[in-house]
Design goal:
CATH topology: Nuclear Transport Factor 2, Chain: A
CATH architecture: Roll
Largest sheet: 3 strands, antiparallel
Pfam families: DUF1348 (PF07080)
Strand order of the largest sheet: 3-4-5
Radius of gyration: 14 Å
Keywords: Plasmid
Strand content: 25-35%
Order of helices and strands: HHEEHEEE
Number of strands: 5
Number of helices: 3
Shape: globular
Number of domains: 1
């Protein structure tokens, strides 16, 4: 059964894989607050403009970035998703998480 939550997760997955920060910023809420879990765990990214800047910086380092977003569960307006992604650095080091 395809639900609205499934469609939203799939749409976000597709947006991220375009590597277009403006498109990704539009897939979420109008006033996003993201926690940067990769590098500075105490840094928060607030607002769409900040999301665009963050993603530009991220994807300038993380080459051939690919994301998979899978819906685990949802209830009302909340959802739990699993993220898997892979990329490589300019020197060739590959990463998956």
């Amino acid at each position: 059964m395809t639900t609205r939550a499934h469609r939203k997760a799939h749409a976000a997955d597709e947006a991220w894989n375009t590597l277009n920060p403006e498109q990704v910023a539009l897939t979420g809420t109008a006033d996003p607050v993201w926690r940067n879990c990769n590098r500075n765990r105490d840094r928060y990214i607030t607002g769409r403009d900040a999301v665009v800047t963050f993603l530009r910086e991220k994807w300038s380092r993380e080459l051939e970035y690919a994301l998979r977003k899978e819906l685990w569960d949802f209830h009302g307006d909340r959802s739990a998703v699993r993220f898997r992604y892979a990329y490589h650095e300019a020197k060739g080091q590959r990463w998956r998480a």
